Each structure stands twice: as C-alpha cells, then as structure tokens.
Amino acid sequence: MNDSVTPRPGKLPAAAPFWMSVVMLPLVALAAIKGGLWWALIPLYGWYLTTVLDSLLGESAQNADPHTDVADLFWHRAVTLIWFPLQFIAIFGSIWYVTHTDHMTIWGKIGLFFGIGVLSGTIGFVYAHELLHQKTKYERWLGDLLLSTVLYSHFRTEHLLVHHSWVGTPRDAVSARYNESFYAFFWRVLRDGPVSAWHAETARLARAGRSPWHRRNPFWLYATLQLAMLALALILGGWQGLFLFVFQAFIAVWQLELTNYVEHYGLTRKHLGNGRYEHILPRHSWNASHKASNWLLINLQRHSDHHYKPDRRFPLLQTYGEDDAPQLPYGYPTMTFVAMAPPLWRRRMNPRIRAWRQKFYPEIADWTPYNTGDTPMPRRAL
C-alpha cells in the first residue's frame, strides 16, 4: 500500500471534486428542454470527458488518514445524502415532462432516457453502494430508495450477504471468470443474482427460526418500493412513461454489471481444500488510482481496499501498488467500454491475469477449475 498521506479530508475544497457528478443533472434538464441529440451530453460528460481528464491528470497515490473521524467527512457524505431526491426528480420529472410536451420524437425520448440510465447507473448505483455499506438506518434507507428507481433492489442482499463473503469463489455470481465475455457474464448475473439473494435471505431467516415469508424478509420491502416506482411512472406518463422508466432501469443495470465485470475479472481466491478458501486480500480486486474517474465514482476504483476493509467510507479508501493489488491500465469508464468488445478485452486483460497468477500463485499448476467456476462451493452455508 502506498503510504503517501493527504491532509485531513474534511474541508469543502477537498470534497469538491467528488461533486462533479452533480453537473450531469442540469445536462438532463437541458436535454429534455432542447430535445434532439442534446441527450448525448450526458454520456459524453460521464464517460468521455472523465477519460480525457484521467489522461491529463494521471493517477494519485495519496491516501487520506483512515482514522479520520466521520464528523470530518460532512462535505464528502453530503453528495451521497442528497442524491436520491435529485435522481428521483431527474427520472420522474423527465417522465412527466416528455409525455406532456410535443417537441420530442420517440427516438429523442429514448435517447434522453438512455442518458438518464447512464446517470442512474454510473452515479446512482455507486452512491447506493456507498450508502448500503453504512450503519445508519437513514443512509441504508436512501440506498434502498436509489435501488428501487432502477428495479434492482435485490442488489442490497446480493452485495452485502453474498458478494462480500464469497467474492472470487464459485458462490459469487458477480465474480467474472477468466475468458468469460461480458455478455455471458451479464446473462449469468441476471439469471443467478436474484436467486442467490433470495437464498441468502431465506437462510438468514431460517437461522433465526423464521419462514421465508416472514415480514422481516427484505424482499417484501424490495417489491413494495419497486411497485411504487412502476406505478408512479405509469401515473405520470402512462404506458409510454412506464416504458421509458423500465428502459432507463435496464441501462442502469447494464452499467452496474459492466462495472462488476471489470472489478474482479479473472481474480480468484485459492481453494485450500475441503471447501475452504483463503481470506479476501487486496489482490482479489482490480485497483485503479486514476484521479478524475475516482472523483466521479467516489473512489470506487480503489476497490481492493473496499473489499479488504468494506466498512471504510469512500474518502478514506486506500490505494495499493502493484506489489499488493493488480492494476487496471485505465479507469472504469474506459475499461467498461473495452469490456463490450470481448476480443479486445481479452487481449488487454488476459496477459495481466496470467502474470497475476504467476506472481501470487505459482504453486497452482491447473487453473481449469477456476476458469470454469468448478472449484468446490465454499463449505460455510449462507
């Protein structure tokens, strides 16, 4: 881990770069009012401008003091706390507006909601992820509300109860396998993720002597919130509004799972025998220290430390050097674009996987079971 430490991060100037996501909201309003191709400004800002800034600003190896008190992180936390109402207005305000005006073609509306899906996927999911990891009920509730706007509420269970426990093992659906294309991965996650989350919650309830249908099963909350969002879209915009809402949710989920694919592609924990796996280490997540994309994604790219210390708030996440964690050549906006072209992705990433294996696990001669997800299931039940 790099030991270069930044000053205390509590002041507004230190937090300001992490607010760059807010610029996307007036771009949504501009695209709705102007119509045409103005929606393209949203992905251009979120994906391409960030990539250009990464190339200009480079990487940062500085780490904040991980013992900083949460009270000193007010301005960092604030952007995640206000995001739900902002995203809610962007989605449902746009549904009402475009279905009550006549200056946009149907393709213009689809373009706009593609852009909104980029907003709710690139930013909303990342902020929900940060909020769901916190201990306060208010933050976790905001995280649930954000997930309901993209119809992916089970992510809370799948991420907290499954992914963090079993990343890099065959029990974790969102650990992308070596040579697995994004498209095969995407289908596998859409198929297996909700089932895995349901099993995790029902196992948790069973340990407390409760049935799967007990009121404490959060799937009741997930269903209620998502149905409420669907009903609101239908009320505000009719069937067209409902279609646009579901479309932006799909784009958001596509963005999330692209990110999940990049974060752990090909990285597996060593099977120790009898269904036991080594403890999670920084080497089991891809790390990226690119400045601008970490500002936009509130340090999500310091993913090695997030899995190593999942209770750390985003301003305090540490970055690691190549001796401790594998390094992505570019930030997430570029890497997710590359992931959509499997031959190009494999050309870029597979040599890095082979080097990672040789560096950390030279004793493993046959990687075939790891490549296919056929190593034994972890023995500890969910």
TrEMBL record:
The chain crosses the membrane at residues 12-31, 78-98, 110-128, 219-236. One of its GO terms (cellular component) is plasma membrane. Keywords: Cell inner membrane, Cell membrane, Iron, Membrane, Metal-binding, Monooxygenase, Oxidoreductase, Transmembrane, Transmembrane helix. GO terms for biological process: lipid metabolic process. Residues 112-337 form the Fatty acid desaturase domain. It holds the Pfam family FA_desaturase. GO terms for molecular function: metal ion binding; monooxygenase activity. It is a multi-pass membrane protein. The keyword Hydrolase does not apply. It comes from the Bacteria. InterPro entries: AlkB/XylM, FA_desaturase_dom. It is found in: Cell inner membrane. Belongs to the fatty acid desaturase type 1 family. AlkB subfamily. This is Alkane 1-monooxygenase.
